[in-house]
Amino acid sequence: xxxxxxxxxxxxxxxxxxxxxxxxxxxxxxxxxxxxxxxxxxxxxxxxxxxxxxxxxxxxxxxxxxxxxxxxxxxxxxxxxxxxxxxxxxxxxxxxxxxxxxxxxxxxxxxxxxxxxxxxxxxxxxxxxxxxxxxxxxxxxxxxxxxxxxxxxxxxxxxxxxxxxxxxxxxxxxxxxxxxxxxxxxxxxxxxxxxxxxxxxxxxxxxxxxxxxxxxxxxxxxxxxxxxxxxxxxxxxxxxxxxxxxxxxxxxxxxxxxxxxxxxxxxxxxxxxxxxxxxxxxxxxxxxxxxxxxxxxxxxxxxxxxxxxxxxxxxxxxxxxxxxxxxxxxxxxxxxxxxxxxxxxxxxxxxxxxxxxxxxxxxxxxxxxxxxxxxxxxxxxxxxxxxxxxxxxxxxxxxxxxxxxxxxxxxxxxxxxxxxxxxxxxxxx
Length: 429
What we know:
The chain is an alpha/beta fold. The protein has 2 domains: 11-209, P-loop containing nucleotide triphosphate hydrolases (Rossmann fold, 3-Layer(aba) Sandwich), CATH 3.40.50.300; 227-421, 2-Layer Sandwich (Nucleotidyltransferase, domain 5), CATH 3.30.420.280. Helix content is 33%, strand content 20%. It is built from 14 helices and 14 strands. An 8-stranded mixed beta sheet has the order 3-4-5-2-6-7-1-8, sandwiched between helices. Strands 13-12-9-10-11-14 form a 6-stranded mixed beta sheet. A hairpin with a 4-residue loop joins strand 3 (86-90) and strand 4 (95-98). Helix 2 packs across helix 3 and helix 13 (376-384) packs across helix 14. The longest helix has 15 residues, at 37-51. The chain is elongated and about 80 Å long. The two termini are 23 Å apart.
């Protein structure tokens, strides 16, 4: 029996190891980001693979949501944790032989059928919330340990009421255990660093990402928006065009309507950056050229530059021209001095929503967005764009005029204030 003598788990990790060893056959560690889930998952998995009483013909399985995540993180962490036990390893094939004869395989949840022909003595699923069909994957894994009575562990952060919640909470069986704890439990990370990250998140997202809570995201997508606070008297006073500052031109290329947001980013006296939405262009049955004409009519003398943000699909050919939408804009508005900050591919919808909610109002109650009340279409979007029932995705079918202008705004917010850049410094454990 191997013990991990140099491993000093914090309280949450200790509870996880105790639960899988003494209490349950299947255990999910659901905790805040940087809670130490992958670190402890790799060490528990190496212990399970080595100590298993199953026949040597049964392998141990390691599963990550994608091959890239497996290759970059999960496999590497396991290999480091199990390094004294490894006889040989083929990284390209994600195959490892331990010194006791046990084989370890790495799998991607993108191709779960490849697991079907393997008998497993146990398994570990890392970052399970990112798996596209965790329920389907789970059913396959249960079949692989049916004859060996092997154990299974899951390490992840929560993601609303998804398959993980359904399996380990709503319909939990007696042999299933759930360990939940916040990022603050990780004593190897300074509290002030976690607090700093919390200030970048909105309240709901903070509860999910840092407190490890299962949060329901339903109804209003942009739930931090309050018209009085972000589009009221203060916004009417401060969210006005400043000719001495660059214009952020945020574009969505839907034809009916075509919706653009005109904003400026200012440095406040408290040294924090604030978005001020000063105008919008919202034209039904339109095209890129018409929107450019409208912009030039409204801002004929702007001399402080334009920064372009928006839909990466605008790189595709325009329906009315052999040029791309972005090329049309750059040509039409070239005299303004154009800087392009459009990514090669769009961010994930979830990342864009989270960035907007956090920028409107963070978990500390601070607001960083003011929208001039004349921008009635953006305000309507922020108040009315809904989630699909039982989903964490925007419902774009209920009202075809909704979501386009808030999408345009969201591309800029995610580019400039992405939550994906938020990091907690300190020991990774």
